[in-house]
Recover the amino acids of this structure.
């Protein structure tokens, strides 16, 4: 699951909360839903959609909690008699379902789902076009020894996480309310606002974690649920043995491939030798610091390669890169 670490490893900009939203959110009515035109460009044509915004309570256990907005796009069904709408839950947590539809491979899947009912691409609370957006990435580049030294990497992650917590709490945001249970309740509030008896769910990566929470708390209002790369409620933190098993399975697939297997007959053994070598002598890799727009030499040790493997093992699109 590509979660906080993925954000921390990027060097990017800061998206603060929308001041206009902060000023007007308390004036909006709980449960209000509004739409505006929206569109996607897909394979040389325009796909018309709607951008919806639903007002929900930030923390449902507090009657005086802030009101926040959930954003989603709705692709209207092409069916004559459409069934229940399908809500797509993307991964991360932190990935925008609204934005990911701009990739053709995703839109092709969503267009097929339109054939049976409306498709709802939900930006989960704190994500994408939902407001507030809780993306905050340090304005400073990572230290050049981040991928070499585990102690230094943990120090940087902790410091930047504390900075982000302080930043959002200073704006009155209840960070404890950004969790899977509240997000599952968001799906139920969205169902009610749309006026439908049941919805379908399609979840990917962390979206499966959220989908399982929705089944637990609101299963009676779900029609069908499809989960890809399923992650259970207690499976976010992976044991080393879990990653090792994935590497061993991948190693078997590589060995069976007539082309790659001839060059990498034992991926597990090769990886162990490389990790042992990097533990003794880290490698130097030249990359471009995109913030400073200049080349820098980054030291990568055993710890750094293990982080990269851990992040990417759950993404099958990255697996062909590993043997290389």
């Amino acid at each position: 699951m590509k979660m906080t670490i993925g954000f921390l490893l990027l060097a990017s900009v800061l998206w603060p909360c929308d001041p206009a939203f902060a000023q007007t959110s308390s004036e909006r009515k709980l449960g209000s839903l509004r739409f505006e035109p929206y569109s996607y460009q897909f394979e040389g044509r325009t796909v018309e959609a709607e951008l919806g915004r639903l007002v929900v309570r930030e923390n449902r256990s507090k009657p005086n909690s802030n009101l926040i907005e959930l954003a989603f796009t709705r692709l209207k069904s092409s069916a004559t008699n459409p069934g229940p709408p399908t809500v797509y839950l993307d991964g991360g947590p932190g990935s925008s379902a609204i934005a990911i539809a701009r990739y053709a491979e995703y839109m092709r899947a969503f267009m097929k789902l339109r054939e049976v009912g409306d498709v709802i691409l939900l930006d989960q609370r704190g994500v994408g076009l939902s407001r507030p957006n809780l993306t905050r990435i340090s304005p400073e580049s990572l230290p050049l020894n981040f991928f070499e030294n585990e102690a230094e990497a943990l120090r940087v992650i902790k410091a930047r996480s504390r900075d982000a917590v302080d930043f959002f709490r200073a704006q009155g945001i209840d960070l404890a309310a950004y969790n899977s249970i509240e997000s599952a309740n968001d799906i139920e509030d969205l169902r009610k606002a749309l006026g439908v008896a049941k919805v379908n769910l399609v979840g990917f990566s962390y979206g499966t974690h959220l989908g399982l929470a929705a089944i637990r708390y609101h299963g009676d209002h779900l029609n069908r649920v499809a989960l890809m790369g399923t992650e259970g409620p207690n499976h976010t933190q992976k044991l080393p043995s879990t990653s090792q098993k994935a590497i061993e399975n991948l190693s078997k697939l590589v060995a069976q491939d007539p082309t790659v297997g001839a060059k990498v007959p034992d991926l597990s053994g090769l990886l162990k030798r490389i990790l042992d070598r990097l533990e003794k002598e880290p490698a130097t890799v030249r990359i471009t610091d995109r913030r400073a727009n200049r080349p820098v030499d980054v030291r990568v040790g055993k710890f750094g390669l293990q982080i990269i493997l851990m992040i990417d093992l759950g993404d099958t699109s990255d697996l062909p890169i590993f043997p290389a």
